[in-house]
Amino acid sequence: KKSEASGVMAKADIKPKSMHRAKIWSDDVENLYRFQQAGYRDEVEYKQVKQVDVVECWPETGFVKKLQRRDNTFYYYNKERECEDKDVRKVKVYVY
Predict the structure, then answer these.
(1) Residue 78: phi, psi to the nearest 5?
(2) Burial, 14: exposed, middle or buried (Cβ in 10 Å; 0-12, 13-18, 19+)?
(3) Considering the entire predicted model, what is its pTM?
(4) Residues 17-47: tens digit of each pLDDT
(5) How far apart, in whole angstroms, are the C-alpha atoms of residue 90 and residue 25?
């Protein structure tokens, strides 16, 4: 049991080294947009906070399907692109 907890603690220390804004839309930017709408930096932080191994994605597109916010309400997303061109520059891309 103890080794499990220390493994989680090691994972919880993952912090981004730098951040830049997205310039053009891509599948990765789309998913980052969805995580950030739900109140997380990215998939890494979401998995740390929610203690989950996999994030539900649409099999057709690979986009995030459903996210649980910190207050435990759920965000549901469409199969299609949701991040419009005007929102692309708001997306933060973190580098680890």
Answers:
(1) -80, 165
(2) exposed
(3) 0.84
(4) 999 999 999 999 999 999 999 999 999 999 9
(5) 11
44-72 pLDDT tens trace: 999 999 999 999 999 999 999 999 999 99
**3-state secondary structure (DSSP) of residue 81:** coil
Structure tokens at 70: 């910190």
Kindly compute the dihedral angle of the four CA atoms of residues 81, 62, 52, 84, in this order, to the nearest 10 degrees. Answer: -10
Q: What is the DSSP secondary-structure string of 36-78?
A: HHTT-SSHHHHHHHHT-S---B-TTT--B-EEE-TTS-EEE--
Which amino acid makes up residue 88?
V
